[in-house]
Write the structure tokens for this entry.
Amino acid sequence: MKTEKIHNLTLHHVDCMAFMATLPDKAFDLAIVDPPYGIGFSKKHTGNGWVVRETKSWDKEPPTAEYFKELFRISKNQIIWGANYMTPNLPPSQHWIFWDKGQRNFSLADGELAYSSFDMALRVFEMSRGAMQGEQGGEIKFHPTQQKPIKLYEWLLTNYAKPGQKILDTHLGSGSHAIAAHNLGFEFVGCELDEDYFNASIKRIKMATSQISLLDSYTQVERDDFEQRDLL
């Protein structure tokens, strides 16, 4: 197992099932996860487009019943993206979360659904397509699924977690969740099995968190001066 420690983030290159097996019951307050949906999106970006990764086909099937048994054992609450593909292994819930992507008649879905263990009514997070593109800042996508925005994870953490709680992500992916957790000061542990995605996400997370740390190093007087000059 390779581990990277970045500020309040602990990131493991490991099979999440092996990692969860080492944990005691209810080790985490909240698990926000985005496991494979089983829709065949195991691809790699070459710089000139996507190619199918036959040797690392991680998206042939959704997680097994054993995955969900472990996830519910080691976390007190759960938010699970793509859970509409996984309902046979999930208990009933009235509280689902809908991410409205602000796109219509696009090749990908207009939105995505997440299962939640919270006893609440359904909630919607809406983010315009333009805002999503702006957040990515023109960076090349290295993960084939639509990269979830940092703002989405910040909204989830703000509304479903409390300060000081421990957050788990079993499928780190592009690292947006980790960046959001860093921004809000949560203790975060993430797992990623795929070495290519792990290395790329570590690079992205380090860049994002180092920029934030640089801003945080300024005094309030300096920050006020920068804001007046439109530099922040």
